[in-house]
Design a protein that fits this description.
By secondary structure, this protein is an alpha/beta fold. It is 22% helix and 32% strand. It has helices at 11-28, 44-53, 104-114, and strands at residues 4-9, 34-40, 58-66, 79-82, 92-100, 120-128, 142-146, 152-153, 169-173. A six-stranded mixed sheet has the order 4-3-2-5-6-7, with helices on both faces. A three-stranded antiparallel sheet has the order 1-9-8. Helix 1 (11-28) crosses helix 2 (44-53). Bound molecules: 1-O-pyrophosphono-5-O-phosphono-alpha-D-ribofuranose, manganese (II) ion (MN) and magnesium ion. InterPro entries: HGPRT (IPR050408), Hxn_phspho_trans (IPR005904), PRTase-like (IPR029057), PRTase_dom (IPR000836).
């Protein structure tokens, strides 16, 4: 646990940007049955901060998927650990993620969720790491920040399950 962490985005920078994106979502979804789907575990902090700032009635559900396990490279095989509780038919679904890296997780999720007939399905991510994308059919409607190809932690993102609770976004420096 003596990893050296460098702050990439401070708590204040993240809060400001999350508010801007929440305002944009509030405008875009006015009058629609907005249904946020939080992708656990990484998406949990961002989903809570975002949801508190969206000025619309909304519903929420949670899905837990994993493609990394304890490793730092996507296995490409996405496992559903916990499915949604509620049907999404007819709803305007917004998937909320902490980061899009290879795109494997979201490509799989969109495929699975489209078959359940939502009225619409869009993506909102805290971080996008486009350099690593292998699934380029993943179109993201809302991105808070684009980040370089480094191993990112904090604000929900883990390294071997640790560091999710950091209030800022950081990178682990090579020792
Ligand atoms: C991480 C992250 C995204 C996904 C992004 O989740 O939270 O869900 O990987 O990577 P991809 O675009 O290459 O698929 P992870 O599988 O580590 O599970 P976790 O959220 O529980 O940490
Ligand atoms: Mn995740
Ligand atoms: Mg993870």
């Amino acid at each position: 646990m003596d990893d050296k962490i460098r702050i990439l985005l401070s708590e204040e920078e993240v809060a400001k940007r999350v508010k801007e994106v929440a305002d944009q979502i509030s405008r875009d979804y006015k009058g629609k049955p907005l249904h946020l789907i939080c992708i656990l575990k990484g998406g949990v902090f961002f989903t809570c901060e975002l949801a508190k700032r969206i000025e619309l009635p909304l519903t929420m559900d949670f899905m837990s998927v994993s493609s990394y396990g304890a490793g730092t490279v996507s296995s490409g095989i996405v496992k559903i650990i916990k499915d949604l509780d509620d049907p999404i038919e007819g709803k305007d679904v917004l998937i909320v993620e902490d980061i899009i890296d290879s795109g494997n997780t979201l490509a799989y999720l969109i495929e699975v969720l489209k078959q359940r007939n939502p009225n619409s399905i869009e993506l909102c991510t805290l971080l996008d790491k486009p350099e690593r994308r292998v699934k380029d059919q993943v179109k993201v409607k809302y991105t808070c920040f684009t980040v370089p190809d480094q191993f990112i932690i904090g604000y929900g993102l883990d390294f071997d399950q640790l560091y999710r609770n950091l209030p800022y976004i950081g990178v682990i420096e090579q020792q």
